[in-house]
Amino acid sequence: MAERRYTKSHEWLTVEGKSVTVGITDFAQAQLGDVVFLELPSPGRKLATGESFGVVESVKAASDLYAPVAGRVTAVNDKLTAHPELVNTDPYGEGWIVKLELSGEPPSDLLDEADYKKVAEASAN
Amino acid sequence: MLAAIGVGSMDDLLVDIPQSLRIKSLQLPAGLSEFETMAQIGSLAARNRVFPDRLTFRGGGVYRRFIPAAVAAVTSKPEFYTAYTPYQPEASQGTLQAIYEFQTLIAELTALDVANASMYDGATALAEAAMMAHIHTGRNEVLVAGYLHPEYMEVLRSFSDGRGIKVRKGTEPNSKTAAVVFQQPDFLGLLVDAAGLTQAAHSVGALAVACVDPISLAVVAPPGEYSADIAAGEGQQLGLSPSYGGPHVGFISCKKELVRRLPGRLVGSSSDAQGRRGFVLTLTAREQHIRRERATSNICTNHSLCALAASVYMTYMGAEGLRQIADVSFKRAHALSERLAALPGWELAFPDRHFLNEFPMRVPKAPAVVRKLARKGILGGLDVHRWFRELKGVLTFTCTEVNDARAIDELVSVLSS
Questions:
Q1: What's the topology of domain A4-120?
Q2: Which chain B residue's Cα is nearest to A52?
Q3: Which of B75, B123, B129, B213 gives B152 a disulfide partner, CB atoms 3.0 to 4.6 angstroms apart?
Q4: Does residue B238 sit in the same domain as residue B341?
Q5: What is the ipTM of this complex?
Q6: Coil, helix or strand for A21?
Q7: What range defines the domain where residue B240 resides?
């Protein structure tokens, strides 16, 4: 399993070769509360780093999803249409959101687990 | 009070407002008693020229129709009669249920999956529908096919300009088109090929937005039947008086897939902790107070009292009643059109097109015709040349159930003299 990286906007990603899997962090899902809907991009769409590609909607908020790397959408998690709660129950597994084909290199400012923990703690306060 | 908040004088309180913006004195006249006020307003009101309903043959978006007494009997109940719409479920089950019923009636009437709690009027409802299409498709062009109400067009442009959306007139959408917008029947009263326009929209991945007359839906195909994605329209005809153009009520409904783009309030049915049925605002994360600038719209309200009037009207009339009204209006308008077309120099402006209860006539000296009728106490057709250069000499006439046969005789006899 590739090492999980994080963004300051609370997405996580794993990179295996050119294939990138993206979701939202455990901290993000806990802050949002029960996720009721996700608006997902169409496969094939090209995303720039930091581009908004969808929305995650919970019982109390609607938040944009941002692409942690540049790439083309190769798959979206169709299970989330019927079971958006997977984002809450298994954010790093069954609750993954999109897969991208990486274009270029991942940005250098991605966070490791320890650094993300600091970001999360700071946002919680 | 100044002492309580620790301010020495009124001037101290207003210290942050620059002197240049302050009014030294308002020079208001002395107050009037209630009696004096009513007398003054009454004399102003008497200067209005109000034509009797039966002698009003003008529509153009607002129509005289019979309003059953049941409408005011319900809307004037103090539980409902307020300018403020309370949405709190713990305090407002009656209001929320009334809105839920309005939504259900509009969804059924338009044959679409879901309707919202209502909009301000037909123009804003239509503009919001176009914005839904823009956000849903990510495209920046709205194509307006045929004769859309010119005031709706203006509102659509106002909504579009700030968002960088181009509004184009035409019938051929392309890959940049977010929505094909059409009015059925159109502003002149003519039926358009709604199914064809809907197909044209879908063939390029655009949405079809139908602007519809609610009474007409009793006799012509509703938007859902020809697969239009969004329906919008003006609900004034459903139990609201013309009232100089408002307040009226807009309605908007759409396919289920678009519900998260739907602007404004939406009431859903739920159950309370004891399992009893209840009504609550639902899917509020679509709305601006939660979704901020990403929301389709900044409307976080509705025209509840007007929507209630429409609900009472539709419930009271029922499907059969609406059909009868549409049918009578159709027959009267067609009878009138034949008699007008027989006048010397008068002809149907679009003889090959079908219409329901409003139709365009090409007439000699249109402005003089309207003045002549007004002198005889009749509100004649609407001179649409004011908005459309190519329609010089065209008046649109309207009949509803209030224009009885004798009223039509009076109109024709004035025009024949």
A1: OB fold (Dihydrolipoamide Acetyltransferase, E2P) (2.40.50)
A2: B294
A3: B123
A4: no
A5: 0.75
A6: strand
A7: 70-310
